[in-house]
Structures are given as structure tokens and as C-alpha cells.
Amino acid sequence: VSHGSLNIKYIRICCLVCVPDRPKLTDSYTEDTWMKLRDAVSAIQNSTSIKYNLEELYQAVENLCSYKVSPLLYKQLRQVCEDHVQAQILHHTESLDNLSFLKKMNRCWQDHCRQTIMIRSIFLFLDRTYVLQNSLLPSIWDTGLELFRTHIISDGAVQSRTVEGILEQIERERNGETVERSLLRSLLGMLSDLQVYKDSFEQRFLMETNRLYAAEGQRFMQDRDVPEYLHHVAQRLEEENDRVISYLDQSTQKPLIATVEKQLLEEHMSAILQKGLRILLDENRVCELTLLYELFSKVKGGLTALLQAWREYIKSFGAEIVSSPERDKEMVQELLDFKDKMDHVMQRCFQRNDSFINAMKEAFESFINKRPNKPAELIAKYVDSKLRAGNKEATEEELERILDKIMIIFRFIHGKDVFEAFYKKDLAKRLLVGKSASVDAEKSMLSKLKHECGAAFTSKLEGMFKDMELSKDIMIQFKQVCYMQNQSDPSNIELTVNILTMGYWPSYTPMDVHLPTEMVKLQEVFKLFYLGKHSGRKLQWQPTLGHAVLKTEFKEGKKELQVSLFQTLVLLMFNETEEFSMEEIRTATGIEDDELKRTLQSLACGKARVLNKTPRGKDVEDGDSFQFNSDFRHKLFRIKINQIQMKETVEEQVSTTERVFQDRQYHIDAAVVRIMKMRKTLSHNLLVSELYNQLKFPVRPADLKKRIESLIDRDYMERDKENPNQYHYVA
């Protein structure tokens, strides 16, 4: 070695081993040595002190093995151990209680293991040479186990009492008593080491477990409510898992838990769902619903049963909301709340399981269409209430969230054409009467509808917005022209006109009312201006949704009244005199009876009573007379009385519904002709099937048959002369 570097070519290691002189093998030596070893084994078995040094005993075994007497030594050792084990069985026939017997058996087992280890340490040379070279011979440790299994644990009485005692201790623990888990762990480890655990204990244990939980399941299902029962099942499963960790063999876990789940869950799935699911969902018991999902996911068919019950609950609860006419006012809000609740359960309890999400969608779609058309109409009205000016319930962000939720409900509806008709009617009122809360919100809703139903669905709605924007531009030009021409009779009326494309807007019944001369003159001025710019067009004035702001003087002072055009015509009459009869007002204004009664009721019987009615009352009759209420008081300067225009009349509702049905007939006719033109000849069943695929609204087979008959009458198609169920297209 130099400078820290190591250069080694060869290493020679010489080991000097000192081996004591071996005694010569004689019969006398062999006998004496064996006696010495037997005495040592007996001392170990009887737990007394050994007279000889352990190293000396080990050397003696090595000497005997070296002289080729290993077979005899192995045989003699086995016989000594067997004699001792056989003697132990007599000590286990004493009359003891089960716990004392288990403790005695455990001591016997622990002593046997300790003794076998000690004996093996002395005869280690024999174990590692002769026994190792003979594969058919069990090792000294295995021999000890075999002897204990054969002469003690295989004894019918001993095994029976051991297993019975262990089962008794486990049952006591299941009943809430405290037991010595270390004792059970040691004894069950003994059975496992002796390879009799499955045959002697596990089968009996699982049978007893099955019997116990079968009875417990029946009793608890009758006596306890479902939430309590679910917590009990979870507790039992936790206890059994803890037993496996504490003292049972690991191989027992799977069949044990399966047994508990079968008797406490699988056998009672229907009863649990029938008795408790509705309560849990009604009361929004998130904790118990989560537990229910977790438990049912453990048993075969559990989630399928829960899925079906969940679907039926949604259908049943939803049908109660939709099918009750007395709940129509709150229907949409209840549907939104119900959907929120189910979504919450889905996310928190059912782990956003795709099957449950799809089942929920299917259930909503099923029950919401049980009552045709009405939910679609009410959803449109609900949207109207949220988008109407004066709705101070929500900020813009909250309104956007509400609209998103409404669109989720909207997707479930089959008759979307009903929604479109009522939505269009309400949108028209909001735009024309100036009652829209926000143009951004309106366009956001329009964008959502377009994304959901396509451009064709919203084309007319978009046209309505375009008309309003074009009308603003036209009015700017009109006012500029009026200013430039410097009208000789400028009038004190400021006119605003909305030009509506007839195909975009709902159809309004024309009503010929008697307008004041000033208004008629202004109409003519605008008509000349507009037709001068757009020759060939025709203007039709619609007074139904007209509105005005009147400057009025009361004793309290000046006020501004925001009123409908019909209210305006009535109030302007009181510039002439202070009292008019119903008949006089009807004659002067030309307003139809029903509309006039509504108008007078809003002025004389509402919150802002600018007219007094004689006799007093909530309803307007033909013989009533009306006086201007000069004593009218109100805290606001501008008072809105034209809310009546936003309210839907029965006639409007009926008219809108009839228009939808009429449009549906046109769609059916067009679809039939389109199909027949392409296919030329088709059977009735195939034609109906094709129609169901093409039509986007619900329709009954009887209605389809009527439309087919109508087309046959009008020579668009004809029946086959030989087969009445066959149709031919007529070119």
C-alpha cells in the first residue's frame, strides 16, 4: 500500500478451525448420550431446570448425527414428544366453564410452542441435516404441530369445546360485552397454524353469523326507522371488519362481510327503499342518503334497486307538482326547487353516478309531459315575470343563473311550440309597453333558446328585436322631418310609433276605437311620412298595446299617469265633464264591452282610483256611472296604472293555445306531404312512424289519422284500392 492506493493481486485467507476430538462410537456412548438428551427434553416439557449445558447438548446431537444414527435419534425424539402430548389430553377432560377451558387450552398451546422451539434449538443439527435431506420427513417444528393437531385438537370433545367457547365469546362481544381479544387472537392463530381453522371454526362461525344477523335484520326492520337501521348496519360492518383486524384470520373477511351484507341489506333492500327512501328525500337527509348509497353499492343489485326507486320517487313527486291545477301559480318555482334539491342529492350523496343522472333526466322528462302544454305555458310566463321591469328579486348575475335553471327544465318539455307561442306573446308586451327589465337579459335568454332549439326557433323572436331597433331609427328621422317642416299646428302630443313586421309578432285582433282628433291627425302625419319612404307597404294601427303618459291636475297637485291607450281615451273624456255613465263611455270610445269593463275596473276599483264608481263595488256593471276623483292622492309623481296591459286575459290564453294547435296541424300536413312526395307509396304504420320521427311536438295517433284523412279529401294523396292501409302520393 502506498499513497493511499491499494494494489492487490492475490488474497489468501487461512482459517484455523479447532475441532474437539470426537468420542468413539459405542453402544454405551450412544445410550448414555440419548438418556442425557431425553432428560433434557423431559425437563423442557415439565418446565423444570435442565441439568446440562445447552452447548453440550447441541454437541451431543451433532456427534450422534456424525456417527450416522440420525434416523434412530429422530424416531426416538418423535416418540418422546408424542408420549408427552398424549398425556396432555387427560388434563383437558376436566369439567370447567367455557372461558376457563379456553384459557387452559391457550396455556397448553403456548407451552407446547415454547417447548417445541426449545427442543428444536437443541436438535437443530438434526433438523438441518438429516431432516432437510429427507423431504418426506416433517421438520421438528412441523412434527410438534402435527402431534398437537393429532392428539389434542382433533379430539372431538376438545375441538368442540374450543370452538364453542370461541363462538360464545364472539357472540358476547357482538352483544356489547367486553372479551379478552388477545385470548381469541391466540386461539384462532392456533387453529390457523394447525390448519384446522376453516374446517373446524370458520364454517361454524359463518353459520352462526348468518343466523344471528338474519334474526337481527328481521327484528330491527320492524322496530326501527330506516335512518336508524342504516346507521346500525354501518356500525355492524365496522365492528366485523375490526374483528378481522383484531383476531380473525384475514381469509375470513370476505365471506364474513358478505354474510352480514346479505342478511342486513340484501334481504331487506325492498323494505328499506319502500319504508324510508321517500322520507329521506323529502327531509333532505344528506348524511343518511350518502350512507344508503354506500351500503347499497356493496351488495349485488343494490344500486339497480336504488336507481329504480329514485326514478319512481322523482316521477311521483314531480307528477304531484305538475298534475295539480291549484298549484299552477307555483308550479315552475316548485319544479326549479325540486331540481335543485335532486341535483344536490346527486352531487353530495350519489357521487354524480352517470346512471343516476340519466335516470333523473328521464324521470323529469316523463312526469313534466304527463300534462301536455300547461308546463310549457307556465314556464314561458315564469320567464316573463323574471324579465319584466319591476322585478327587483335578483341581480343580473342571479337572473342569469335563474335563466340557466329554467333552460334545464325547458329541455324536458316536448311541446316547445307552446312555450314559443306564449313566450313570443309576453315578449311582445314587454317590448311594446316598455316593461322589459334588461335588453341584455332578453338577448341572453334568446341566445340560450337559439343554442337549445336552433336558429329557426328564434328567428321570429330576433325579428321582433330588429323591428324595435328599426322603429327607433324611424322615429328619429320622423322627429327631424317634423322639426324641419315646422308644423303650423305642432300639438302638445309627443308621438312614438313602433313599426312591426306582421309575420314576426303575435296576431292582434283589430279594434276600431274612436281616437281624439289630435291623435288621428298625428297618425296621418306619420302615415304620410312612412309611406313616402316605403311605398307599397300598408300600415294597420293596433291600439291594443298602445300606452300614454297623461299630465293630470288633482287638488293635491299635478301628477303624471302612465296608462294604456284605452285608459287614455276614457280619462280624456273627463276634460269635458266630471261624470259619465257606462253607456256614454262605450259610445264615445268605441271600446268593446269586455275590454271597457277591464279598463274602467283598473281606473275605479284598483289601487290607484283616479275615478269614482257609483255604486261602489269591485265589479263594473252596465248601469254604473263614473266621476273624476279630484281628491286622489299618491306619494309618487308618476303613477303606473297600465299594468292591466301586462295581464293575460282568458281570451288571450285561449287564442294563443288555439293558434298553437292550428300551427301544429299545418306542420303535420306539411310533414305528411313531404314524406309521401319522397316515398310515393307507404303503409299507414310506416307513415305514422316517420311522422313521429320528424315532428317535434307530442301528437296522438288519432290526430294524425284526421290530418291524413283531410289530405286525402284535398287530393294530396289517395288510398290504395285493394289495400286501405296503403297510401299513394298524388302529384
TrEMBL record:
One Gene Ontology cellular component: Cul4A-RING E3 ubiquitin ligase complex
Residue span, Cullin family profile domain: 374-604
Protein's UniProt keywords contain Phosphoprotein: yes
Any Pfam family: Cullin
Coiled-coil zones: none
GO MF, any single term: ubiquitin protein ligase binding
Biochemical pathway: Protein modification; protein ubiquitination
Record's keyword annotation contains Phosphoprotein: yes
Domain of life according to the entry: Eukaryota
Keywords for the protein's UniProt record, in alphabetical order: Biological rhythms, DNA damage, DNA repair, Host-virus interaction, Isopeptide bond, Phosphoprotein, Ubl conjugation, Ubl conjugation pathway
SUPFAM superfamilies xref list: Cullin homology domain, Cullin repeat-like, Winged helix' DNA-binding domain
GO biological process: cellular response to UV; DNA repair; proteasome-mediated ubiquitin-dependent protein catabolic process; protein ubiquitination; regulation of protein metabolic process; rhythmic process; ribosome biogenesis
Family label: Belongs to the cullin family.
Name of the protein described by the UniProt record: Cullin-4A
Source species of the chain: Cyprinus carpio
